[in-house]
Amino acid sequence: MTVAQLQNLRSFAHLHLADVVDWARDVRVDEKATTGDQAFVVIKTPYNSYKMSVLSSYITPPPGAPTMCSSLGTVTFDDLAGDKHVVGPKADNTYNEISAHIHQREYTDALAICRRDLAEAPKDRVPIVRAKLAGLIAGAKKWGVKVSAADELAATVAEVPVNVAPKLEELAQTAVPPIEDADLRPSPHIIYGRIYGRPEAPVTGEAFVGMPVIFVTNPGEQINGMQEIPGTIVAINDDKVAVFVTPANSEPRYYDRLPRRSAIHKFNCWDVSPWFAALLERINKLEHPVIEPAPTKTEVFFSERLAKLEARLDKLIEKPKRARPPKAKAADPEPGED
Q1: Are strands 85-89 and 228-237 parallel, antiparallel or unpaired?
Q2: How much is the CA Rg of the chain, to the nearest whole Å?
Q3: N or C: which end of the chain has fewer CB within 10 A?
Q4: CB of 271 within 8 A of CB of 245?
Q5: 54 confidence band (pLDDT: 50, 70, 90)
């Protein structure tokens, strides 16, 4: 079977639809109807389904096709979930019209799904979903898809990261008077991740490649009696990781797409190695001093009044008391005096 017309469809998908359609995953070829002069495919993306065909000039165009289809060949397109139907010659105008429709449908549905995922995402996945939403908005605007102001705000507003330590130099300047000797000033580059070559490593133990972890096996599947096996993260895919573990007296093993241990995932999961978690906690205490906020005007006012009252009280306690003179006793009458 020759693949001349099928190659035209493959070129169209690679040149026009590469960002929304994966030929190997989303395109299914109708092997029975496809020949060297005609090709039929079904495009099934995660959101929509389309049917498309390309006919050579040797095939009679379908009814209603433009006259140029007889000399250039025919392209047909149908949106199986919508009312879009295109019949035109094999020319750039036809391909551009089909490409614009597919992009608009895909980005519209992708934005709706991503908007829902952002509303339901756990706190640790919100930055990832927000970044995905920002990418979808950029692509949607390119193809004329209407984007609401709420979506743009959700994609641009970033939460203040609670696990990112401020510079130690700024902490030293705000917490205590500045040190005159520059050699004694704390370095802002002493971040715990530098120990493992990752200055941007998160303080809360978020996964990164090279992180020491433990793999928790399923009940009854212990290796040499080990329920928790030490290992190292070698790859990260969204919220799942791949771990290379080294059990005792056994060959090293590789486990892919493991979730982190939680109330839902108690087995066949990963968690931070206890010694590494203790190290993070110790370094956090050293590099994250607790700075008390400045007192308010009300607190200053009552503190001053309290100090004055305490001073007055101290004076009253230290002031000696005056001794009262004893009362004079009445003289006893002499004998014989009545």
Answers
A1: unpaired
A2: 39
A3: C
A4: no
A5: very high
